[in-house]
Design goal:
The structure is a single chain. By secondary structure, this protein is α+β, with helices and mostly antiparallel strands. The protein contains 9 helices and 13 strands. The protein has helices at 13-27, 43-49, 92-107, 120-127, 149-155, 165-179, 189-193, 244-261, 276-284; strands spanning 4-7, 54-59, 62-72, 75-83, 111-116, 132-143, 159-160, 201-208, 211-221, 227-238, 266-270, 288-298, 311-313. Strands 1, 2, 3, 4, 5, 6, 7, 8, 9, 10, 11, 12 and 13 form a 13-stranded mixed β-sheet that branches. The two termini are 30 Å apart. The relative contact order is 0.15.
């Protein structure tokens, strides 16, 4: 079988999405693997955000695998990487990774990271490209509580999204400045742009007076990375310091309120165990682990995985 590794083309999004769902659904043992992540749309959103980081393995016009890279400024994120189950253990993933990993050099990312399941084969694959495991990463969920008068008052503590283009740009700039305090060059502005369409989510914020104290990029709605039933926190961060736990609690309550108003049933977030205080606070607030992976970094640098950093992210 002759296999070509090349950039993904616009007309191949559906086929790449099918391979992605089938691969991960099979890995997780779902009764219908093609229903992995339901109506959430990850491949299309990731390719739309970073089209120069998308690659496929093709044979006789059939998509056998897909590999994506994401550019967050000083941080590059690898994934998802998926191969059709009937072609597992055939070396396709390794071939896909070769051009994908090269993208991080072109983007001049200071560090690259990924989320994977702590399986010996997965670890060995990524170690071959210079990635080494650091901390466990639980992906956690919490049921969205029904509305009450007290919760509605808490919801008003934060604003979701922004108004016109100028207001959105100003908010993105504020978020950019805050993100740089935990990792110089970390840039979430493209991630924020990706959910400008209100039906796909919003940016939830908390303020200390006029100053931004925290923000959460929340996907929620059909066509988003969360889907219609999930408020999915792609990234969230609050200002470090003595008041960080209070800001974090306010931000999560506001994100839950946002998800509630959208009709979502659950709130979902990933957190590195290296950010121990944030992880522990999630548990205390009722979040429970649904699946667990491990973060791998290249080089083996902590990035912002420090106990005092109240940040959430999901590199799946």
């Amino acid at each position: 079988m002759t296999i070509e590794i090349r950039a993904l083309r616009e007309g191949e999004l559906d086929a790449a999405d099918r391979v992605y769902r089938l691969a991960f659904g099979t890995l997780l043992g779902l009764p219908d693997p093609t229903r992995y992540r339901g109506d959430a749309e990850l491949i299309r959103n990731r390719v739309r955000a970073y089209p120069d980081g998308a690659f496929v393995a093709v044979s006789d016009g059939e998509i056998l695998g897909v590999s994506l890279a994401n550019n967050l400024g000083s941080l590059g994120v690898l994934g998802p990487v998926a191969v059709h189950p009937k072609h597992w253990h055939g070396g396709i993933a390794r071939r896909l990774l070769e051009p994908t990993v090269e993208v991080f050099s072109r983007w001049r990312n200071r560090m690259a990271g990924l989320f994977t399941f702590p399986d010996a084969g997965h670890l060995r694959l990524y170690q071959g490209f210079g990635f080494w495991p650091r901390y466990l990463v639980p992906v956690m969920t919490k049921p969205v509580a029904p509305a009450t008068e007290a919760r509605e008052e808490a919801d008003e503590d934060a604003a979701a999204g922004a108004g016109d283009a100028a207001a959105r740009q100003a908010l993105a700039a504020e978020c950019h400045t805050l993100a740089a305090t935990i990792y110089p060059g970390l840039d979430l502005r493209r991630e924020i742009e990706m959910i400008e369409a209100p039906e796909r989510g919003g940016v939830v914020v908390v303020r200390d007076g006029a100053t931004l104290a925290g923000f959460a990029i929340c996907h929620c709605g059909k066509g988003s990375e969360g889907g219609a039933q999930t408020g999915y926190l792609k990234f969230a961060l609050v200002r470090s310091g003595a008041e960080a736990p209070q800001y974090f609690s306010r931000l999560l309550a506001a994100a839950e309120g946002f998800a509630r108003r959208r009709g979502a049933a659950q709130l979902m977030a990933g957190v590195s165990a290296g950010r121990h205080r944030a992880h522990r606070q999630l548990v205390e607030m009722g979040f429970r682990t649904q699946l667990q992976g491990v973060a791998m970094h290249r080089p083996w640098d902590e990035a912002y995985d420090r106990p005092e950093i109240y940040a959430l992210d999901d590199w799946r």
